[in-house]
Amino acid sequence: MRILFMGTPDFAVASLKRLVEDGHDVCGVFTQPDKPRNRGKVTFSPVKEYALSQNLTVYQPMKMKDGEALGIVRELHPDLIVVVAYGRILPRDILEAPRLGAVNVHASLLPKYRGAAPINWAILNDEAETGVSIMYMAEELDAGDVIRVAKTPIAPDEELPVLWDRLAELGAQALSETIPALADGTAVRAPQDGTKMTYAPMLSRELSPIDWSRSARQIDCQVRGLLPWPCASTELAGRKLKVYRTAPGRETHQVPGAVLSAGKAGIEVACGDGKSLVITELQAEGGKRMAASAYLLGHPISIGNE
């Protein structure tokens, strides 16, 4: 099938790679414009890097509604547009240009977690299960009819980067299984139940500060769900720390935020549900990510310090 692919981050690479491996004619790749990163150095998106490695033609329109993007789509004459985390809203004329329309690989069990950060919010909200949905695209954000759903459990201690990679591969597999049904006209269209819709907004640094009055489990989910950015953070002994990993502690009746122990196991802090949580990996401002025990060698913390 002749396919125009649209995507930007590493999550999208798995689907693009699968399209190539399945032998489809990827007639072009849309990705977001190059942006300065790493002290002003311009770097390519992961999708662009992979596309160039496969000698695929890359397009990076600045806008989607000024006619330029539509002109490219019409010139390419794709049978289908596949969108995976492109980061741009597509106008109706582009969605309707291919004869088979446009489909999206979304990393949630729609209608739950429509929006920009569904994987993060599934962990932040301590969901036991998530997955990917292949859907027809509509003008309303992530509201199109669902074609295929693939589910997967979330391990109790699973961190965002691990789940991210698993869902990327699950989405690529679901996409591969969906395209033949699109080609022969047997793909189903299951309308979403809008009354069950939840939203997964973009992440911000405002989500970072840890409120130790919350439960130990809620804080652990915050730590795992905000990796690798913006990261959970806290202030201990007057220093601001990013918290990268925690472990369950013990029953305690101390004031939330009180440091109960600090040693080889890490920094144990009281939480609001009568339990403690042990910070095992952290990063101080201006420092490197390290084990909490290594940090304590140069920065001892008094027990009971909030």
Q: How does this structure look, described?
A:
The chain has 306 residues and is an alpha/beta fold. It is built from eight helices and 17 strands. Helix 1 (10-21) packs parallel to helix 2 (46-53) and helix 5 (118-124) packs antiparallel against helix 7 (216-225).
pLDDT under 50 segments (min length 5)? none
Number of strands: 17
Going across the biggest sheet, name each strand in turn.
5-2-1-6-7-9-10
How far do the termini sit from each other?
61 Å
| Count of spatially separate domains | 2
CATH class of the largest domain: Alpha Beta
Bin the strand percentage: 25-35%
Q: In the CATH hierarchy, what is the architecture of the largest domain at level 2?
A: 3-Layer(aba) Sandwich
Short descriptors:
alpha/beta; single chain; 2 domains; Methionyl-tRNA Fmet Formyltransferase, Chain A, domain 2; Rossmann fold; 306 residues
Summarize the structure.
27% of the residues lie in helices and 29% in strands. By secondary structure, the protein is α/β, with parallel strands linked by helices.
Task: Break the fold down into its secondary structure elements and pairings.
Elements: E1 2-7, H1 10-21, E2 25-30, E3 35-37, E4 41-43, H2 46-53, E5 58-59, H3 68-76, E6 80-84, H4 92-95, E7 102-106, E8 114-115, H5 118-124, E9 129-136, E10 146-153, H6 160-184, E11 199-200, H7 216-225, E12 232-236, E13 239-251, E14 259-263, E15 266-270, E16 275-284, E17 290-291, H8 292-298
Parallel strand pairs: 1-2, 1-6, 2-5, 6-7, 8-11
Antiparallel strand pairs: 3-4, 7-9, 9-10, 12-13, 13-16, 14-15, 15-16, 16-17
Helix pairs in contact: 1-2, 1-6, 5-7
